[in-house]
Amino acid sequence: MIFEAPRGVSSWIPVPENSHFPLQNLPFGAMKTAEGPRLCSIVGETVVDLKPLGMSGLLPGAKDGHLDLEAIRAALFELFQESSARLRDDQALRDSALYSLSEVEMARPVAQIGQYVDFYSGIHHATNVGKMFRPDSPPLLPNYRWLPVAYNGRASSVVASGTPVRRPWGQFKGANDEEPGFAPTRELDFELEVGFFVGHGTGLGETVPIERADDYVRGFVLVNDWSARDVQRWEYQPLGPFLAKSFATSVSPWIVTLGALEPFRVAGMEQKPAVLPHLRDAGKAHFDVRLEVWLKSAKMKAAQRISATNMRELYWSYRQQLAHLCSNGTPIEAGDLCASGTISGCSKGSYGSMLELTWKGMEPLMLEETGEQRSFLEDGDSVTMAGYGEIDGMRIGFGEVSGAIMPARK
To answer: How many CB atoms lie within 10 A of CB 267?
Structure first.
C-alpha cells in the first residue's frame, strides 16, 4: 500500500513555513534513547516517538514480522490532522510521545545495514568523468546505456548525518607520475546522491520484476558518498573503487516513503537505445526533487551554496537499479542500502562533486565570504546536502545530511 496524504490538510502541531516535514510527509527515523535507537517520525520540528503510540493501540503493529510504514503513516496522518482530538487532548500521552527536535539526537535511520550498493546512474556525472579521464574516447563506456553500472560498497562505514569524517590515508601517485606513496588523500571530495533502503528481502535465486520493485522499497534518504579522488585514480583499474570510497558514506536521518514522494513523480529522460525487456518501465519512476550542496570552511560564519540540481537528472531509475541488482538471483535483505551515484545536472552550477565543480581541481571554487579557494575539501570544511520537492506551496523534504572533515590520523 502507498499512502498519499491529501494536500491542504493542516496539523494541530505547528509546522514552520517551508518546513521539509509537513503533515503530508511523515518520514521515519531512529531517535537515540537510553534503551537504544527507537523508531520515530517528525511533524514540523516535533519528533514523534512511535513506541508510546503503538502501546496505546493508536498505530498498526507488525504483521508477519514486517512493519508497514505506509499504514503507520496513514494512522499518524489521522492522529495529527487539525480536526483529530484523540492524541491532541491526551496530555499524558503527548508528554510521553512528543519531543522538540532540539531535544533529540538522531541515529542512523537503519540500525543494521547488511549490504551497500553504489550505482553510477547520473549520466551527466558519468559523461563529465569520461571527458576528464578519457578525452580521446567517447565519454560513456559502451555498457552505460544498457545497464545500471554499480559496485558493492562497504556497509560498515555508512554513518549518520553529523558524524565527522576523518581524512583517509591511501596509496596514490603524485602530479609528476612518480612512484606511488602512502599518505593522507589530497583530493577529498563529496558525492551528491540519493539512496533507498530495501524493506524486505528475497531468497537466493529469486528476482524482482521491475513492475514489483516498489514493493521492496522502504523509502529514500540523501547520501554523501565521500571519495578520495587521487586514491581512486590509482586503484580503480581494473576492478573499480575500493579504499577510495569505503572510509565513510553519510546518510540523512529521515527515510521518506514512496507515498510522500508520489506528488513529484516524473517520467525521467528518454533512454536510447531502448533498454532490454527486464529493465523496461512503463511508469513514472523518477522524482522532481531539488537537491542542493552547501560548503562552509572553518573561517566562514555561514555556508555557501555551491551546487543545485534535481533527482530527475538520473538516467537509471531506482526501479531499474533494483531489478538489475536482483536479475541474476542474488538475494537482497531488509536494510540493504542502494545509492544512486552522483547526481549532476548539465551545467557547472549543478554538478554533484568537487571533481566536476572545479574540473579536476584546475578551476578552484571561490568562497565569497572569506575569499578562500577550494579545489578539493580541506580539513575543517563542512558539507551539507538538502533535498525537497515543492507543490502548491508545500515542501516534502529529506532534511539535511552533513559532515565535517577532520585531519588524518598521524
So the answer is: 13
Per-residue pLDDT, 176: 74
Share the mean pLDDT of the chain.
96
- Say how far apart CA 44 and CA 22 lie, in whole Å: 6
Same domain, 160 and 309: yes
Task: Clarify whether residues 124 and 94 are in a common domain.
Answer: no
With the C-alpha atoms ordered 232, 236, 242, 246, is the resulting torsion angle positive or negative? positive
Q: What's the one-letter identity of residue 233?
A: R
Looking up residue 187, the CATH number of its domain turns out to be 3.90.850.10
125 is catalytic: yes
Residue 362 phi, psi dihedral angles, 5° rounding = -85, -15
pLDDT tens digits along 27-86: 999 999 999 999 999 999 999 999 999 999 999 987 666 789 999 999 999 999 999 999
Q: Which residue ranges of the chain lie beneath pLDDT 70?
A: 63-65
Query: Which residue among the candidates 125, 278, 286, 324 is catalytic per the annotation?
Result: 125
Q: Which domain holds residue 152?
A: 116-406
Say yes or no: 197 and 344 in one domain.
yes
Q: Are residues 224 and 304 in the same domain?
A: yes
Report the first-to-last Cα separation within the chain, whole angstroms: 52
